[in-house]
Design a protein that fits this description.
Layout lengths: L2 H10 L3 H6 L2 E4 L2 E2 L5 H4 L7 H13 L16 H7 L3 E2 L7 E4 L58
Parallel strand pairs: 2-3
Antiparallel strand pairs: 1-4
């Protein structure tokens, strides 16, 4: 995006998706009984629908404890546990979003692929390779030599 477009989006308040792309941390506390919708959206993973549900529940009866958030549709006990450090039911809201630059990755060195194996050299024989014939059933082992009249394996003609 161009700088002018980014500045225009941020000025209109439409740049919230751009701000989410950066690593933003919440510092401070949000009072769920007195917080404005903008302050409630500072809580991690709270969007417009969760803000509406929190405000509707708060209008019916104010929160006496942070654990009551688990009664709202779309918010479970595990989510409340993650938010607990940033929530309060009394006192002022002091929450502000702080954007910190991401630290460089420190880990094992990258693994480079191995080069392909070298092809094996082709060996060419000068004379054809002749294998001895297979033994026939009942034939003695010495008869496995090449059968020809000149080497003594076959009787002379």
């Amino acid at each position: 995006m161009s700088r002018v477009l980014c500045i225009a989006l941020l000025a209109l308040g439409l740049g919230s998706s751009l701000a989410r792309a950066e690593k933003a941390k919440l510092e401070g506390v949000v009072n769920i009984n007195t917080a404005t919708p903008e302050e409630l959206q500072l809580i991690p993973t709270v969007g417009e629908s969760r803000v509406r549900n929190i405000l509707a529940y708060r209008r019916a009866h104010p929160f006496r404890s942070v654990d009551e958030l688990a009664r709202i549709k779309g918010i479970g006990r595990k989510t409340v546990r993650h938010w607990r450090a940033h929530l309060a039911v009394s006192g002022p809201s002091t929450a502000e979003r702080v954007v910190r630059p991401e630290l460089p990755f420190v880990g094992p060195p990258p693994i480079f692929p191995r080069p392909p194996p070298m092809p094996l050299p082709t060996v060419r024989h000068s004379a054809p390779v002749v294998f001895p014939p297979r033994l026939r059933k009942g034939e003695p082992a010495h008869s496995a030599c090449l059968r020809s009249a000149g080497n003594g394996c076959l009787p002379p003609p």
